[in-house]
Structure formats: structure tokens, C-alpha cells
Amino acid sequence: DKAGFKHYMLKEIYEQPAVTHAAFEDRIKDGLVDESAFGEQAAVIFDQVKQVQIIACGTSYHAGMIAKYWMEGLAGIPCHVEVASEYRYRPVVISEGTLFISISQSGETADTLAALRDVQDQILASLTICNVPASSLVRESDLNLMTNAGPEIGVASTKAFTTQLVGLLLTTLVLGRRFKLSQEKEREIVALLAQLPGLMEHAIKMDGSIEEMSQAFAEKNHSLFLGRGTLYPVAMEGALKLKEISYIHAEAYPAGELKHGPLALVDKDMPVVTVAPRNEMLDKLKANLQEVSARGGELFVFAGCSQEVQPGEGIHVLEMPEVPEVLEPIVYTVPLQLLSYHVAVLKGTDVDQPRNLAKSVTVE
Ligand code: F6R
């Protein structure tokens, strides 16, 4: 049931204010994260964690990349992230006290499941962040955190991703208590989470201006997505969405890498999308952006108004709500999902069932 929406994907994008709320609401007690939400053994296991190894595929891998910024940046937790299909096929070194975190919408992805099975007897414990309670990954993991996104029908993952991010933020907080995260900081982040549904709502209201923007992409064959910090994986996710459903080649780069090669590609046929972080790196990013526009490239900048990015010749600014830094990757994902959706609709592709792809990759 598409509930009046033209596609499941659009319906699922619009569900995000509600489901990101469902992903944290029952897990908060007295202003802190209730770690029993992860399972009975959670406290005992978390006490022994020395580092984290995250494994996932595709969109779920992008969620893992963002979690690494949080784990190391907010809490000082050593964290590695790798795609399951690489990790499982190479000899790996697993340090003592490793919490193995798998992230999966379906809980059935063959490579992710195989990676978990391969390391079972070398890890401290396993935790799955998953959307399907009755799935294999959930059954085979010591601890679980459900994302509570509800069934995701569109092949392109949307609400599963943003709810995974909420789950990973909660995970960072409970583990962070054992590392460098103060209780005061945890309270502060938990309080910010309450703003998330409203911010997601606000981002969805940009739908009209993004639909307009999508016209600049429909006739193109290539595009570039730039971001810094947690917004680099968001750029990767935006590029993946565009590739998957509109079949336009899209590549993501950390903004600082632009001048190390990809800048040579930029011309009027290569639109560039930037998700602008609100931090000390913004000035450098702006300088990067100027280099691109000087080469005739067309720039689309998603930024909060306090960032003072000036529109100009070939520079389009899409105004985002002001978002607390820790929530940026969750909120900035929404307009990129909408962009890929509208480009695909303009191109007339099968939005919910892109060619060659399956919702759940249970074979290798
Ligand atoms: C992209 C997409 C895929 C999945 C990947 C992992 O939109 O849906 O990249 O994210 O196949 O699937 P799960 O999360 O079910 O393990």
C-alpha cells in the first residue's frame, strides 16, 4: 500500500520523521540511553569492549562510515569499518575486546552474514543493527538493536538508512560511557535527538525546490557529490541513490580530494552537489567550490543559512534548516534521497525496482 504516494520510495522518504523518532523514543530513560535495549547481556559485554569493527554492504556500509566519525570523534572508541565482501575474503587481524557490529536492513545479506560467521570465535561479541527482527543476522548475534523503520519495499534504501544512523548514534553513546564521553555530553546529545523528527520534517518540505533542481540532472550522464566529515559518507549515499535509480553516473569525494584529481573532470556537463558542514572546515570547502565554478561547473550547495554561502553564477544554494552538528548526516540525507527520486521520475525509470538490483542480496 503506497498510501497515496506514487512510489514506495517516496512514501518511505516521507515516513522518516516518524520512523527516526521510533528508532530512539523507547530507548531513552531519564535523559540517557537505556542500554538494556541492546539485549540482556549488553552491560556485561559493553564493559569489556576495547574497539569496534563494523561490517556492512551498500547503504548500510555508508551508515557504518558515519558511525566511525561518531565513535572516534565523540567518544574516543577505536573503530574500523569495512565492506563485508572485502572483509570476509581477506586474512584479518582481530584485536582482543572487539565488538563486531553488523549493519543490515534485511538481516539476510550473504556477505555480511558470512563475515559474522567467520569471526564468531575470535570476537568479544556481536551486535546487529537491523530492521528485520526475525532475520538471520539478528538470530546469530549476541546483541541486537532494531531500527524500527517498518517494512522497506523500495529497493533503494531510505528510511532504513536514517534509522540505522539513529541506532548507531545510540550505540556510540552507550559505548562512549566506557570511553571518553561524559554523562553531560550524553545528555546533551540525547536532548538534541528530540529535535530530529522536526528537522526531518523540515528537510522533506524542501521537496518542491529539489524537484525543480532535479531538472538540471535529468539530461546529464555524470555528477559529483562532495562532503566533509560525516557528510562525506552522506555524499557517497547520495551518489549511490542517484546511480541506482536514475542510472546517472555519480561519484562521491571527500571535498578535500577534489584538487587531487577529480577537479579535472568538472565542466558544464558535470553538476556538482555539495553538502556543506557547519564547522571550521567550511572556508576550505568554499575555496574548493570556487575552483569548480571557475571551470564552468554547476554547483548545488545544501547549507544552513548561517553558513552564508552566496548564490552566484552557476552556484545554486538550497537552504537547509539549522541542524546541530551531530544530527547533520541524518538530516542532510533527506534532500539527496529526494533529488535521486525526482531525477529518476523525470527519466521515467522504475523507481521502486531498479534494473539488475534485488532488495535483499542473499546470494554472493
Ligand atoms: C542501496 C541498497 C543496498 C543495500 C545493501 C545491503 O539502496 O539498498 O546497497 O544497502 O544491499 O543490504 P542490507 O542493509 O539489507 O544488508
Structure description:
The protein is of the alpha/beta class. The chain is built from 14 helices and twelve strands. Helices cover 43% and strands 16% of the residues. The strands form three sheets. A five-stranded parallel β-sheet has the order 4-3-5-6-7, sandwiched between helices. A five-stranded parallel β-sheet has the order 9-8-10-11-12, with helices on both faces. The two termini are 31 Å apart. The radius of gyration is 20 Å and the shape is globular. β6, α7 and β7 form a beta-alpha-beta unit. Bound molecules: fructose -6-phosphate. Fructose -6-phosphate binds next to α4 and α12. Its main location: cytoplasm. Its EC number is 2.6.1.16. This is Glutamine--fructose-6-phosphate aminotransferase [isomerizing]. One of its GO terms (cellular component) is cytosol.
Please give the structural blueprint:
Layout (H helix, E strand, L loop, with lengths): L7 H7 L1 H7 L5 E2 L2 E2 L8 H5 L4 E6 L1 H18 L3 E5 H4 L10 E7 L5 H10 L5 E6 L5 H5 L2 E4 L12 H18 L6 H11 L2 H9 L2 H12 L3 E6 L3 H16 L2 E6 L17 E4 L6 H13 L4 E6 L10 E6 L7 H20 L17
Parallel strand pairs: 3-4, 3-5, 5-6, 6-7, 8-9, 8-10, 10-11, 11-12
Antiparallel strand pairs: 1-2
